[in-house]
Amino acid sequence: FGFYATYSLGKAKSDTDGPETFPANSFDLSGEYGRSAVDVRHRFLFGGSINAPGKITLSPFVVAYAGLPYNITTGVDTNGDQQFTERPSFATDASRPGVVSLAGLLLDPNPAFDQQTIPRNFGNGPAFIIANLRLSKAISFGSKATVGAGTPGARSEKRFNLTFSLQGQNIFNRTNPNTPIGNMRSALFAKSNAAATAYSSGLGLGSTTAGNRRLEARVRFSF
Questions:
Q1: Beta-sheet pairing, 123-124 with 128-147
Q2: How many other CB atoms are there within 10 angstroms of residue 100's CB atom?
Q3: pLDDT per position as a tens digit, 101-136
Q4: Residue 26: left if φ>0, alpha if ψ -120 to 50, beta else—which one?
Q5: How many CB atoms lie within 10 A of CB 121?
Q6: In degrees rounded to 5, what are phi and psi of residue 39?
Q7: DSSP state letter for 66
């Protein structure tokens, strides 16, 4: 058997998440520097190959990373910049209208002038974990052919190869929610309404989907 694994610990800060993002206050950018949308603390990748009895090869592949950050907004344009990107403040009075609790903290969507607003990308989404497994078996037949003839490493192999494989994606059928909705005026605030992908925020890990368990059977003929 053989395997490989990588782990990375990261931190990323910025004052914007790209040309399609807007500050909480277009007239004051001083509070925008903070956690980046690609600030993922922990990332883990594991893969390998195991030669099992019966000339069957098992190839596991696991991807896991911590939750992605998301921005929390009030959903109201109070400063007149035509953008609904204002952020709430940390509430000190739970009885104020609209105050909600998130991760043990109180957020006030109607902050007073002197109240401190929450940082950009203050929310933290759920972790992502997906495990894939591929089983394959190759059958060789036909007359022998010399591979690399005339070289020191020349060897004889069967002329034809038939490979049967079964690939399982998300074999434990784990639900991986996408980053939650950050608009406090939404009925789905702090909830996810879609499945995550392994390519979220350009991570480029694993499959493009992370939905229900999926099995694929393949046959390859080589000669």
A1: unpaired
A2: 16
A3: 888 899 999 988 778 899 999 999 999 999 999 999
A4: alpha
A5: 25
A6: -80, 90
A7: P
